[in-house]
Write a structure and sequence with these properties.
The chain is an alpha/beta fold and 407 residues long. It has helices at residues 8-11, 36-49, 62-70, 133-143, 162-167, 191-199, 203-208, 224-231, 287-300, 315-324, 339-351, 362-370, 382-396; strands spanning 25-30, 54-59, 87-89, 94-96, 102-107, 121-125, 151-156, 173-178, 240-246, 259-266, 273-279, 305-309, 330-333, 355-357. The longest helix is centred in the last third of the chain and has 15 residues, at 382-396.
């Protein structure tokens, strides 16, 4: 191997290099696989080569520190020239470099373990996943008191936790963001494309792939935690399926989308659960186009009925749907209350764990996480409107009869 093989500034992408300036903390927020671990480890290596000798290493757990920060492919024990690499004394949770530098490993599960030790350099990994982020960070920073310029790097995929939000407002913190795609050359072929296809543009994607701190808008009825809980776990086979539609007022070029949500229900009584099966919303669309899309969803999911809001088009809505598919069972509903008031019971059902998603519906999720917030710029939350009609029909109105299928 040549000296160039270990020349990190030569091989790193720009987001993996420390920013200029007189910062005390470098906060590196990156997407999954963006190269955060390698950036943190190489920064530690550079600090040691510049004369730093007392290193603090903090991970969510001791196992994370050992398997990722130290022993992982991009960890401290696997970078740099072989004769410059540290050895790990697991019994003392200590790394020792050939030049005499020492690194000590800590878990964010035990903030008090950082009382007493002192450092000139520290690396905090996956800060947003720490059990006690604020307490651990406070104790760590008080131990950064050696040398002429003690510094800390924090590498993390962001989450809107108070401790991370507080860091972003501090004058001595330099912040960088790096998306997953910047490190595509070091990831499995097709990984970035697959992740973008599934999550690109969604709130989850902007957080987990773009490395951007996304906060829940104040006043929104749904949070990302609600969505993640709804998407977790297996879903039961529904015994009733409906297609809910929120038609646009017009079919012009600048018309709203047509909200089309397919949902089912399983269970009885308090155990009855709604399952969001598909989001077929699109637009702008002419009445004939959205009616055909509704009929196609009805057939594709072998649904029992169509529930359509008729506030905008009245009887025309039912007529358009039945023109697209004669005999289509349609129930017209009329909104007598505002959107937020109608949505609040549905949001409460999400909080109670009684609504599940059978997949990821990123455009719908984005609308949900912005709906109801005073600062939201949603023109018309058509997907959410259709969702509210669907869940209301399945869980809040008189439950339908069990499904019968022709064999």
């Amino acid at each position: 191997m040549t000296e160039l093989d270990h020349d990190w500034p030569f091989w790193a992408h720009s987001g993996q290099l420390p920013p200029d300036g007189g910062w005390n903390i470098w906060l590196f927020m990156g997407g999954r696989g963006a190269g955060k671990t390698r950036a943190g480890a190489e920064w530690i290596r550079a600090r040691i080569e510049s004369g730093c000798r007392r290193i603090g290493l903090v991970a969510p757990t001791l196992n994370d520190a050992r398997e990722v920060m130290i022993g992982g492919p991009s960890g401290l024990a696997n970078i740099g020239p072989p004769d410059h690499r540290p050895r790990f004394e697991s019994s003392r949770r200590r790394l020792i470099w050939p030049n005499g530098a020492e690194g000590y490993v800590f878990s964010a599960e035990d903030p008090d373990s950082l009382r007493g030790p002192q450092f000139d350099t520290a690396w905090a990994d996956e800060f947003a996943a720490w059990s006690y982020p604020q307490a651990t960070l406070d104790t760590l920073r008080m131990g950064l008191r050696l040398g002429t310029e003690p510094r800390l790097v924090i590498t993390t995929t962001p989450r809107p936790i108070p401790a991370l939000k507080a860091l972003t407002g501090q004058a001595d913190v330099a912040i960088t963001h790096t998306p997953t795609r910047e490190n595509a050359g070091n990831l499995a072929a097709g990984f970035v494309a697959a992740m973008q296809a599934s999550y690109g543009g969604s709130l989850l994607g902007r957080q987990e792939l773009d490395g951007i701190l996304i906060e829940d808008p104040e006043g929104a009825l749904w949070t990302r935690k609600d969505i993640e809980n709804a998407c977790g776990g297996e879903t039961a086979d529904p015994h009733r399926i409906i297609v809910a539609v929120d038609p646009p007022a017009t079919g012009q070029v600048h018309a709203d989308e047509c909200g089309i949500i397919v949902a089912g229900a399983s269970g009885e009584g308090r155990d009855r659960t709604a399952i969001i099966l598909a989001d077929r919303s699109f637009g702008p669309a002419k009445p004939s186009a959205w009616a055909e899309a509704v009929a196609a969803a009805f057939d594709g999911f072998e649904a029992d009925c169509v529930v359509a809001e008729a506030n905008q088009g009245g009887d025309m809505v039912g007529a358009v749907l039945k023109a697209a598919r004669p005999g289509l069972p349609v129930r017209l509903v009329h909104a007598s209350r505002g959107k937020r008031i109608r949505a609040e019971p549905v949001a409460a059902l999400y909080s109670a764990g009684r609504v599940k998603h059978a997949g990821r519906f990123t455009a719908l999720e984005d609308q949900m996480c912005a709906f109801g917030a005073p600062a939201s710029r949603l023109k018309s939350p058509d997907r959410v409107d259709a969702l509210v009609w669907a869940v209301s029909e399945l869980l809040l109105n008189r439950p339908g009869l069990p499904r019968l299928r022709h064999l």
